[in-house]
Amino acid sequence: MIRLCLLLISLFCASSQSQQITNEQLTVGNKITIQSEVLKEQRELLVYLPKNYDATNRYPVIYVLDGEFYFIPTIGVVSSLSATKAIPESIVVAIPTRIRVRDYLPPIKGEAQSNQQQFIKQKFPRFGGTEKFQTFLMTEVFTYIDSHYSTLPNRTLIGHSNGGVFSLHTLLSNPDLFTNYLVISPAPWWGDAEIDSNFASIKELTLAKNLFITLASEPGRYYAHMMRILANLKSHAPNSFQWQYQHLAEHTHEPSVYPAIYAGLTYLFNDFKYSPSEELAKYGDVSPIIDYYEGLSKKYGYTVDIPHSVLAQFSSQQLELGRNEQAFETLNYFVKHNPKVAYAHQSLAFAYMRTGQYLKAKEGFSHALTLYKKNGGTDYTVVDFLNNMISDANTKLMH
């Protein structure tokens, strides 16, 4: 019996030792603490970089207020949308809250004009620091992010409730801080006369700005406040100002944030999503695509590069339709403007393969493989694919 017990213990120990269990933390971002000279306090920034972040590329930046609540949900939405090419790959910067009423609620001019203004004025006298918070963003947060990461001058602001008030106030008082404004259930801060006065200035916007604004199933004062804002937008917004309102009636105040972020980012980046039509592939060439992105660049004031996937998709459509000359025109443009991108050379090599130009295909795949490794690529499936294509091209040459 003793021998049997010893044998069982020995087998159990051996089994336990053979099971190697690891427990590793997953990191989704970095927490950075900066000393703000503007606000006279330390502030945290939560930063998420795209999975395949490449410092040789440049990325839009999405800024999220109330970051302690909305950093992780925003990352999930951004990752999902960028993976399906609905929005560009983007950096997310969330700013945790310190004193919401101070940072997010604008000062009152004269007497309180709304119930919320009266309440805040009585209970939270530290409100009204929006100008300092804007300066903090502009001179300290943007400066840090732009100096440490590869960014585009395309910034999106996401604000909910009081954060939504700050977002609208910034759009009206300092619109050039951001390109896109995603405003979720803004608290009914202004009185009717203030809304009319403040939103009359929106007609003076000259650079392209975009607004997506939502309301959930909330008390009547929220609805009345929103309807007045929408009426003013319809009356005063210039053609260069793109905006959309969505009523999320099936959601309450807090839960509406998540569908609002998804719908809002999809809308705000809608013009960055370009899918070449079959008609263009059948009858046209790459020039309308070039024109589209040149127009987008002019609209936003910086160079918006044509996504690699757009050029690859369009050339593939052209090849399938037997328009080889036009396909190679597209691919040569792709390579010319992206000479260090392995995918560009791979796409051109694949076209050579499909048209029986096996020597050029072999050279192209070999060059793509060299570039991929030189650029730090480590995905074995990509390396394996390129090696297989080189081998296939070489076999074709031998026959």
Labels describing this entry:
15% strand, 8 strands, 399 residues, alpha/beta
Describe the structure.
With 399 residues, the chain is an alpha/beta fold. It has 16 helices and 8 strands. The protein has helices at residues 2-18, 67-83, 100-104, 115-123, 130-148, 162-173, 192-199, 220-236, 257-268, 278-283, 287-300, 308-320, 324-337, 342-354, 358-374, 380-398; strands at 30-36, 41-48, 59-65, 91-95, 151-160, 180-184, 209-216, 241-248. Helix 8 links the parallel strand 7 and strand 8.
Concise summary:
This protein is of the alpha/beta class. The chain is 53% helix and 15% strand.
Multimeric status of the protein: single chain
- Spatial order of the strands forming the largest sheet: 1-2-4-3-5-6-7-8
Question: Rounded to an integer, what's the Rg over CA atoms?
Answer: 27 Å
Largest sheet: 8 strands, mixed
> Helix segment count?
16
Structural class by SSE content: alpha/beta
Catalogue the unreliable spans. Answer: none
Q: Overall mean pLDDT score?
A: 91
The ordered string of helix (H) and strand (E) elements is: HEEEHEHHHEHEHEHEHHHHHHHH
Strand content: 5-15%
Care to count the β-strands? Answer: 8
Shape descriptor reads elongated
End-to-end Cα distance: 73 Å
Helix content class: 40-55%
